[in-house]
Amino acid sequence: MLIHEKPALKAEARNLNFYYGEAQALKNINMPIYDKKVTALIGPSGCGKSTYLRSFNRMHDLYPGNRYEGEIRFFPDNTNLLSSDVDPIEVRMRLGMVFQKPNPFPKTIYENVAFGLRVRGETNKRVLDDKVEQALRGGAIWDEVKDRLQDLAPNLSGGQQQRLCIARALATDPELLLFDEPTSALDPIATGAIEELIHELKKRVTILIVTHNMQQAARVSDYTAYMYLGEMVEFGKTDEIFIKPQDKRTEDYITGRMG
Amino acid sequence: MNESLHLSSQFDEDLGGLRTHVLQMGGLVETQVSAAIEAYSSGEVGSVKHIVETDRKVNDLEKAIDDDCAHLIAKRQPAASDLRLVFGITKIVTDLERAGDEAKKIAKGVRRIYEAGQMPSQYGIGVRHIAEAALGMLHNALDAFARLDPQLAEHVIRADADVDTEFKSIMRQLITHMMEDPRTITTSIDIIWIARAVERIGDHAKNIAEHVVFIVEGRDIRHPPKESKA
């Protein structure tokens, strides 16, 4: 802790506001996302964590009346992800997302992972096979499914489905992975496997994770942001936030003194 | 320090219970130390037995509190100020238990001296003085814990330097005695042990005060680098 070297930035929110119609859901968020680190977003329900997470891949564009202000800068090219000149499809190509409930396509295991590659125009069978295997290995599920790649994905267990979804997200080599409560529907063993996987993944990809499980945030993340009522109350190293938070509201939340 | 209530009232009760037990244990150790000092001055060696018996209670409390802390960590996964409190308490009880052991050493040393027909007061008066200073430090350190008062804790930490200085001066005095009259060596050595135990009680009080600062402010102020030492 004596050395305070700041890692490189992968992304940065600058004066970010977001409105669902009239209702303001994010209030002037400023926050760095460090490269190849895990950043956890914690806070009570409705505090804006998921809204913030979904701003990165422009998911809010799908509904009319939603409006962004400010910027999310994406590095190294310093693109503003929210700029109207930037095609949301292009943005999503560079990001991967995993949701609360595993949502495999009603296709085979193989096709779930190959899908994104095919969308990108990859047709070479050998390349597809290779990339599918790599992604499944990256998702720590290869050994369990290598002999049944043609089985339907929805027949896997919940924990396996979730790792398949992570593998699917990895197949297109994303720069930033967005996890929205990825283990809230899983048992402790499957949760442990996903957390272990997150540790492995951060060697090559930046991760932003929303979690309701504070112990999980403490275990998996390098940085933690506490959000409350659409504001980012505190951002800091996870080690410091969980031992000595600076803000009373963060303290109250992580010690279980508020709902 | 965060004084607002948890959503779980059981958690508040558990934490409150822990603090009460630590203060109980602290009270016992304080009694041990003050009884040992009293015995040193008065020669009333009857209390020695009582001091030794109290030590058993102190040891039992140490184990019970450690056990409660382990259960609380397993059940509640405390974080931030709660974590610092539980962590600090496990350290405080170690220092308290050791301070109790030192009191026991003082009491036994006093008994040896009086049973040999000697009077410690013949050997200079410094011991009683630092013993009272050390007892005061212990008392203040426990007060600082009870009130979670970092200023009082810092005061205790500063007081330790005086006790250390006085201990060295007592050592010099006794060495002079021993050189001048070898017949005093046996008793002098007992008094050295006693003074040493007193000085250690001061150290434990200082440690407790350091844990209090950590609990309240999250700063680990143990072992400051040389240049910042006053």
Observed structural traits:
heterodimer; A: 259 residues; alpha/beta; Rossmann fold; 6-stranded mixed β-sheet; 4-stranded antiparallel β-sheet; 10 helices; 26% strand; B: 230 residues; mainly alpha; Methane Monooxygenase Hydroxylase, Chain G, domain 1
Description:
The complex is a heterodimer of chains A (259) and B (230). Chain A is of the alpha/beta class. Chain A has a single domain (9-244), classed as Rossmann fold (3-Layer(aba) Sandwich). Chain A is built from 10 helices and 10 strands. Chain A has a 6-stranded mixed sheet, sandwiched between helices. Chain A has a 4-stranded antiparallel sheet with strand order 2-1-4-5, with helices on one face. In chain A, strand 7 (176-180), helix 7 (188-201) and strand 8 form a beta-alpha-beta unit. The longest helix of chain A has 14 residues, at 125-138. Chain A is globular, with a radius of gyration of 18 Å. Chain B is mainly alpha-helical and 230 residues long. Chain B has a single domain, classed as Methane Monooxygenase Hydroxylase, Chain G, domain 1 (Up-down Bundle), CATH 1.20.58.220. Chain B is 81% helix and 0% strand. Chain B contains 6 helices and no strands. In chain B, helix 1 (9-42) runs parallel beside helix 3 and helix 3 (80-115) packs antiparallel against helix 6. The model of chain B has no long low-confidence stretch (mean pLDDT 92). The A-B interface holds A 214-215, 218, 241-245, 248, 250-252, 254-259 and B 2, 4-8, 11, 76-84, 217-218.
Describe what is shown at a glance.
The complex is a heterodimer of chains A (259) and B (230). With 259 residues, chain A is an alpha/beta fold.
User: What is the H/E string of chain A?
Assistant: EEEHEEHEHHHHEHEHEEHH
Structural category of chain A is: alpha/beta
Number of helices in the DSSP assignment of chain A: 10
- The tally of helices of chain B reads 6
Q: Give a quick account of the main beta sheet of chain A: strands, pairing sense, barrel closure.
A: 6 strands, mixed
CA-based shape of chain B: elongated
CATH architecture of chain B: Up-down Bundle
- Which radius of gyration of chain A do the C-alpha atoms yield? 18 Å
Structural class of chain B: mainly alpha
- CATH class of chain A, named Alpha Beta
Largest sheet of chain B: none
- State the fourth-level CATH superfamily of chain A: P-loop containing nucleotide triphosphate hydrolases
Low-confidence stretches of chain B: none
Q: Please, what is the average pLDDT of chain B? A: 92
> Overall pLDDT of chain A, averaged?
92
Question: What coarse outline of chain A follows from CA principal-axis ratios?
Answer: globular
Helix content of chain B: over 70%
